[in-house]
């Protein structure tokens, strides 16, 4: 379990599936995650297949005060040879957005990935029009590394993706009080 000031994060369990399915199937969220509709049975199969997959860590995010589920965040494609992984994050409960909880979740995941797993680089691939996540990443020190042009075909259009990356040295440097 990862404990923050306002949130806690635990590896995803069966009981969390209903929330993930509800959030991912929300049209506005599906649009930025670029996801197909998902079902509970399909997500259950995916979770049991991936629970012990060493190339990913799938966390659920809860409010610390009452353990209400509010979102999820993953490390994917963990590459131990090149010491890097991809990050994803979703605050599915829209009522708690705008309170700095995504920032806290991203900070906790960065500490976990860099300081506990010892990875050297984290990166994200996001639709160029997803300004909230691009702004959040920039705030956390991620740099834009390039554009994957016409990377995915979704809702009748090819969508460009922005690649952003953060190095362990850059994260550690930011954490040193100035
Ligand atoms: C992106 C997301 C995680 C932000 O969640 P949140 O809880 O509202 O974010 P926070 O309150 O922690 O805000 C942190 C920073 O994100 C940026 N941000 C958040 N919402 C924003 C918005 N609507 N417009 C522009 N920037 C925004 C800002 O830089 C903000 O910092 P600031 O408040 O100091 O300006 C949330 O909108 C979300 O889950 N979106 C759907 C999923 C998604 O797009 N995930 C990315 C693909 S993996």
TrEMBL record:
The keyword Transferase applies. PROSITE patterns: GNAT. The keyword Cell inner membrane does not apply. One of its GO terms (molecular function) is acyltransferase activity, transferring groups other than amino-acyl groups. InterPro entries: Acyl_CoA_acyltransferase (IPR016181), GNAT_dom (IPR000182). Keywords: Transferase. Residues 7-169 form the N-acetyltransferase domain. CDD domains: NAT_SF. Coiled coil: none annotated. This is N-acetyltransferase.
